[in-house]
């Protein structure tokens, strides 16, 4: 996955028009914008509404409904840590608790030092849990050391933004 870049209206228009002809285009458009810019800028709402010929309220409603969509420029980098059943069975909860204790960072507690760790529920790599997703890459069979290293990498990437 490419690194997010600063909001650019012409690029946003291109991303929207690329997907406008799909059946059910709204979610693919929102995902494309978030992937490219790291969030869905509020300025996209009007662009999407006019491209799809729907109301701004409809676009905004969908954007707000899904917690995965960020509406503000992220303050750093995000690691998604899976706490769904199969990863839990492979020790994800204990891993998360040890990480919080060792690092002083809170999972789902927002950005700290330019990094946030958000929980997600299944990354599709259940047999190799515990799993995390960072920068489009899945990290499986996570150990305490691997999660700490991933966190350190995200902190460095956050500074480099
Ligand atoms: S349960 Fe964690 S990847 Fe499926």
UniProtKB/TrEMBL annotation:
What GO MF terms are annotated? iron-sulfur cluster binding; metal ion binding
- Keyword Chaperone in the entry? The reply is no
Q: Which UniProt keywords apply?
A: Iron, Iron-sulfur, Metal-binding
One protein family per Pfam: 2Fe-2S_thioredx
Q: Where is the signal peptide?
A: none
Q: Does the keyword Hydrolase apply?
A: no
Question: Cross-referenced PANTHER family, in alphabetical order?
Answer: BIFURCATING [FEFE] HYDROGENASE GAMMA SUBUNIT, NADH-QUINONE OXIDOREDUCTASE, E SUBUNIT
User: What's this protein's name?
Assistant: NADH-quinone oxidoreductase subunit E
Q: Which species expresses this protein natively?
A: Rhodoblastus sphagnicola
């Amino acid at each position: 996955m490419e690194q997010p870049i600063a909001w650019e209206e012409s690029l946003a228009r291109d991303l929207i028009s690329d997907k406008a002809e799909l059946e059910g285009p709204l979610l693919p458009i929102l995902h494309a914008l978030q992937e490219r810019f790291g969030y869905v800028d509020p300025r996209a709402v009007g662009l999407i509404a006019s491209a799809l010929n729907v109301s701004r309220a409809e676009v905004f409603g969908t954007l707000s409904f899904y917690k995965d969509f960020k509406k503000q420029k992220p303050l750093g980098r995000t690691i998604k840590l899976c706490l769904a059943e199969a990863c839990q069975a492979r020790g994800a909860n204990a891993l998360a608790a040890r990480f919080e204790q060792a690092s002083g960072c809170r999972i789902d507690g927002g950005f700290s030092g330019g990094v946030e760790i958000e929980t997600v529920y299944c990354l599709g790599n259940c047999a190799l849990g515990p799993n995390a997703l960072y920068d489009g890459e899945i990290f499986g069979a996570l150990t305490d050391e691997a999660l700490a290293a991933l966190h350190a990498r995200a902190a460095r990437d956050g500074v480099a933004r």
